[in-house]
Write a structure and sequence with these properties.
The protein has about 180 residues and is mostly helical. It folds into two domains: about 90 residues, no CATH class; about 90 residues, no CATH class. The chain has seven helices and two strands; from the N terminus they run H-E-H-H-E-H-H-H-H. The protein has a two-stranded antiparallel sheet with strand order 1-2. Helix 2 runs antiparallel to helix 3, helix 4 packs antiparallel against helix 5 and helix 5 packs antiparallel against helix 6. The chain starts with 7 loop residues before the first helix and ends with a helix.
Length: about 180
């Protein structure tokens, strides 16, 4: 039975969505992003920054962290000074699915083939969030894997990690088909 006190807008948000003040959400996100900016700057100063003509590996993370920190401080200041704002809903099903899928990508990125993981991520998001047909998700996953390969290998000349996936697959195939003869 639905809660009779719940607003129609709350029912449209889904069962997992929780009402939160937008001001509180802005402040919480500002703190989280400020921590991220501090982490970027802290880690960047451990690397050589280089010079104006030839920036080192720590230059861009330092610059991005500093810019992020300044922008976040402005957002934090505006959030603190603002009046109580409207209610927003956090915890949407689709957001939680994408967050879980991104955590899966981060945990398996180097262990399993990068292209397979990114293709599986694309397929999972299309199937579970966009609710696309299986054949459309499969085609989009393959095309996204090809696009990632073309961008990194052809355009940038960078080889992404392949992990142990293809070696394990080859060993499995050899044991099943060649070993079984």
């Amino acid at each position: 039975m639905a809660d009779e006190n719940a607003s129609p807008d709350a029912e449209e948000q889904g069962a997992w969505a929780r009402p939160v003040s937008s001001r509180l959400g802005e402040i919480a996100m500002s703190v989280a992003l400020l921590a991220t900016a501090v982490f970027f700057v802290w880690q960047a100063v451990l690397l050589p920054l280089g010079g104006i003509g030839l920036p080192g590996p720590g230059f861009f993370p330092f610059a991005l962290g500093a810019v992020l920190g300044l922008l976040v401080l402005a957002i934090f200041y505006c959030s603190i000074r603002s009046e109580e704002a409207e209610i927003v809903y956090l915890g949407h099903r689709d957001v939680l699915i994408v967050l879980a899928a991104l955590i899966g990508v981060a945990l398996t990125f180097e262990e399993v083939d990068t292209y397979v993981i990114l293709g599986a991520f694309m397929a999972a998001v299309l199937l579970l969030v966009a609710r696309a047909a299986l054949w459309k998700a499969a085609i989009a996953a393959v095309l996204s894997m090809v696009a990632v390969w073309a961008m990194f290998k052809l355009a940038l000349g960078v080889r992404l990690p392949t992990g142990e996936f293809w070696d394990a697959l080859r060993d499995l195939a050899l044991s099943k088909f060649v070993g079984g003869l």
